[in-house]
Amino acid sequence: MRAPAHSEILGSGPGPVLLGAGGLLAFTLLAVLAGRGPSVAALPEVEAPPGIGAPPAAALAFRAEDRDDGSIALREAESLRVVATIRPGEDGFVRGTLRGLAQARQREGLGPDEPFRLVRHADGRLALDDAATGRHVALQAFGPTNAAAFGRILQDAQRQDAQRRDAHRQDAQREAHP
After folding, report:
1. Lateral strand order in the sheet of 135-138
2. How much is the pLDDT for 165?
3. DSSP-derived 3-state class of residue 39
4. Cα 144–Cα 145–Cα 146 angle in degrees, nearest 5
5. Distance from C-alpha of 166 to C-alpha of 56, rounded to nearest angstrom
6. Most distant CA pair in the chain: distance in Å?
7. Backbone torsion region of residue 90, taken as left when φ is above 0, otherwise alpha when ψ lies between -120 and 50, otherwise beta
8. Residue among 175, 153, 52, 46 at smallest CA distance from 98
9. How far is 5 from 153, CA to CA, in rounded Å?
10. Along the 178 residues of the chain, how does pLDDT read in single tens digits?
11. CB distance 128 to 118 below 8 Å
């Protein structure tokens, strides 16, 4: 029994080889086109666990404002006071997450008017919601260190609120008892 000749395996002429190369080229083009969908840096949308609809233990509605020096000011939506400033080169996860949500708004033709909402649930889970796009980011999905970066923003805002309430209370007491 003799070994099959090269032309018997591949067929005659270059036709099958060219057909294979063409198929590989078509597959590559389709893969590239499929990969050009939403941005690669898009945030994963995580299904909200049961109980998300329950009232949050703490929440902060805020707007992110880019500044000329490269920092980002986080302003409480109602009072417009700055509750946090993200300086250039710091808090990369916070900066990247907010940038991703802002880019999603731009892709959908939406502006910055609707505030983001940072929520701490009673069980300690943190979430960042964007009502404008309907996106929900479960921050624990990115690890405890990254979630803690947003947790500090919420704690700082709560501490500022408490200090402001105490100052108003002291002012009211001084006016009542001169």
Report:
1. 82-86, 72-76, 58-66, 116-120, 126-130, 135-138
2. 76
3. coil
4. 95
5. 23
6. 116
7. beta
8. 153
9. 73
10. 566 555 555 555 566 666 676 677 666 766 666 666 554 445 455 555 544 555 688 999 999 999 999 999 999 999 999 999 999 999 999 999 999 999 999 999 998 889 999 999 988 899 999 999 999 999 999 999 999 999 999 999 888 877 777 776 776 777 776 6
11. yes
HSE-up (13 A, CA, CB side) for residue 57:
12
- Encoding tokens for residue 57? 């233990």
Per-residue pLDDT at 74: 95
Cα distances from 65 to residues 7, 51, 61, 126, 149, in angstroms, run 68, 31, 13, 22, 18
pTM: 0.63
Measured distance CA(63)–CA(83) in Å, rounded: 10
Looking only at the bridges linking them, the beta strands covering 58-66 and 72-76 are antiparallel
Task: Quote the tokens at residue 161.
Answer: 């609120």
60, 78 Cβ separation under 8 angstroms: no
Q: Is the alpha carbon torsion for 132, 103, 87, 125 positive or negative?
A: positive
